[in-house]
Design goal:
Strand 5, helix 7 and strand 6 form a beta-alpha-beta unit. This protein has twelve helices and 13 strands. The protein is globular. The longest helix has 24 residues. The termini are far apart. The chain folds into two domains: 133 residues, Aspartate Aminotransferase, domain 1, CATH 3.90.1150; 236 residues, Type I PLP-dependent aspartate aminotransferase-like (Major domain) (Aspartate Aminotransferase, domain 2, 3-Layer(aba) Sandwich), CATH 3.40.640.10. The strands form three sheets. A seven-stranded mixed sheet has the order 2-8-7-6-5-3-4, with helices on both faces. Helices cover 38% and strands 15% of the residues. With 382 residues, it is of the alpha/beta class.
Length: 382
């Protein structure tokens, strides 16, 4: 038997990978599990986006390898998108790197900047891939707490105590997943000043800024040089294109060029038709987001009722495509709460503990289901 690499010693299979297999098996046995755990948009992209993909398949050269930095028109569309929606000016040749999904970018950034033994500031609770990828490249996670009493924002005074010459990167994620906490330019300025004073690179993972959020803000708004900041963005959530795997990384020319050294040795570019569809998506005006958010607001009202039936409390001022809710039952872990709901009511939601120790006592409910399906879940609880 070939032994796996040592780097996998502390890495577990992604929670959803194992749980979804269990749900599939339960459904195979005749159960009717309603999956409210995953942020997988069920709506379709606009018709002009899918039409652009279809049309591009017949373009000359569309099935060849594509440029490692994406076609020029795509990068220009990202630049226009950032200017129109965030008032951030980007040079399409220097500041933009299209990605095959923004999750890919977490690995690329980590490989580009981290050596074995380096340390990375990671939010707790936070997206599990920040921790697992940090470990995979041989670096050490340093968790900084996000707490409800601090409105799910980091305490910069406490963060200073974690700083050493080994700290290279810091991950932030606003609008936040899983908590739904929004951000503003004042918060980003404080984080950027912290990064500059401690000479670390801060990356904002920003796929949710257009979901139930009237004031999208980019981390790159804080400084035109972008020296200490990078931002990941994606069309997965905001344009219902999760399966297309279209992400983007924006930052300084030096940082983009450094990451390109990694990326160009791992993939061979994004399919041309997908790029053409992404260009159409990036050109959508504000009416697209208004219509999308109208649907999510209507769904969220039903999810609030589900939370009420389950005795959960929640913040109605949150953003994103989830409701983050607090368990009020004594002596019940989030895993126990979720499994009890799954086996007794055939409803799956996400335990907060998979996002870190500070997620214990909370659960996350997705808005990526039709109103009919959400009402079906609600009726299971009546």
């Amino acid at each position: 038997m070939i032994k796996p690499a040592q780097r996998l010693k502390d890495i577990k299979e992604y929670y959803f990978s194992t749980k979804l297999r269990e749900i599939t098996e339960l459904n195979r046995r005749g159960k009717n599990i309603i999956n409210m755990g995953i942020g997988n948009p069920d709506l379709s992209p606009p018709e002009n986006v899918t039409n652009a993909l279809k049309k591009a398949t017949n373009d000359n050269g569309s099935h060849k390898y594509q440029p490692y930095k994406g076609i020029n028109q795509l990068r220009m569309s990202v630049s226009d998108f950032y200017k129109k929606n965030y008032n951030v000016s980007l040079d399409s040749d220097k500041n933009i790197l299209p990605l095959i999904g923004s999750k890919e970018g977490i690995m690329h950034i980590s490989l580009a900047f981290l050596n074995k033994g380096d340390k990375v500031l990671i939010p707790n609770p936070g997206y599990p891939s920040y921790q697992s990828i940090t470990k995979l490249v041989g670096a050490e996670p340093l968790f900084y707490p996000l707490l409800e009493k601090n409105s799910w924002l980091p305490d910069l005074d406490s963060l200073k105590l974690l700083i050493s010459d080994k700290v290279k990167l810091m991950w932030i994620n606003y609008p936040n997943m899983p908590t739904g906490k929004n951000s503003n330019i004042e918060f980003f300025k404080k984080i950027y000043d912290f990064a500059v004073s401690n000479d670390i690179l801060v990356i904002n993972d920003n796929p949710y800024s257009f979901i139930l959020n009237d004031n999208p803000v980019s981390f790159l708004s804080v400084d035109s040089s972008f020296d200490h900041c990078l931002e990941l963005n994606s069309l997965s959530k905001s344009h219902n294109m999760a399966g297309w795997r279209v992400g983007m990384l924006v930052g300084s020319k030096n940082n983009i060029d450094t990451i390109l050294k990694v990326k160009s040795n791992i993939d061979s570019g994004m399919y041309y038709g997908i790029q053409k569809g992404a260009i159409e998506a990036l050109c959508l005006d504000s009416s697209w987001y208004r219509s999308l958010n109208k649907i999510y607001r209507e769904r969220r009202e039903i999810v609030y009722k589900i939370c009420d039936k389950l005795g959960l409390t929640y913040d109605k001022n949150s953003t994103g495509m989830f409701v983050w809710a607090k368990i009020n039952s004594l002596n019940t872990s989030s895993i126990e709460f979720v499994d009890n709901l799954l086996y007794s009511k055939e409803i799956f939601i996400t335990p907060g503990s998979i996002f870190g120790t500070n997620g214990e006592g909370y659960v996350r409910l997705s808005l990526c289901l039709s109103q009919d399906k959400l009402n079906e879940a609600l009726n299971k609880l009546l």
